[in-house]
Amino acid sequence: MPFNLFSTLNTRKIDSLNSLQRVASLFLVILFIVLISWLVNTSKISAFYNAILPHNQTFTELAFNDVNSLPSTISSSNQVKFSFMIHNVGGKTVSYPFVITLENGNEYKTLESGKVILDSNGIVNIPENLSVQSTSQRQEVVITLTSLKQSIDFWLKGSN
Predict the structure, then answer these.
(1) In this structure, which of 80, 104, 134, 140 has its CB flanked by the most CB atoms within 10 Å?
(2) Largest Cα–Cα distance of the chain, in whole Å?
(3) pLDDT digits (tens, 9 = 90+) for 110-155
């Protein structure tokens, strides 16, 4: 078999590149471990987390207590019964003014309004039994937290 200098040089170059890639990979792994150790040991990790992760988020949960039992029609006594809850997930006491309206096309009628004050992580359930006149059109019952402009709603069928 004849000696091929070109083939031998190419093989050595490939071996050198593979060795170089292994060294570079090992260097990156060691660098990563050193960086993580430095962050943990110098308490920089909390600043790192605060910079990339959300924290101290506050919000309010407004929901019906039992969505499956919401009325779809007005009772024969013209009553609409339901309940809703407000949950303060903020870190402070919050006042929640609310209004319940009946919307029928372009007409809006205020059925009730009120205000609750909740401590941090407080929850209140508000039962309702409202008088509503039946019409032939669909009507929407809307509960709005006025200070937050947050609302939930359900529809009542029109009478035939």
Answers:
(1) 80
(2) 107
(3) 999 999 999 999 999 999 999 998 888 899 999 999 999 999 999 9
> Same domain for 95 and 75?
yes
157: three-class secondary structure by DSSP = coil
Residues 83 and 126 sit within 8 Å (Cβ to Cβ) = yes
Q: What is the pTM (predicted TM-score) of this model?
A: 0.64
Alpha carbons within 13 A on the beta-carbon side of 29: 6
Look at the alpha carbons of 75, 78, 79, 80 in this order and tell me if their dihedral is positive or negative. Answer: positive
* 146 and 79 together in one domain: yes
Q: How many domains does the chain have?
A: 2
Segment holding 144, helix H or strand E? strand 139-145
- State which residues form the domain around 128: 60-156
- Non-local CB neighbours of 140 within 8 Å, separated by 6+ positions: 102, 103, 104, 153, 154, 155, 156
DSSP string, 87-114: EE-SSS-EEEEEEEEEEETTEEEEEEEE
How confident is the model over 76-96, as pLDDT tens digits? 889 999 999 999 988 889 999
Identify the helix (H) or strand (E) that includes residue 155.
Answer: strand 150-156
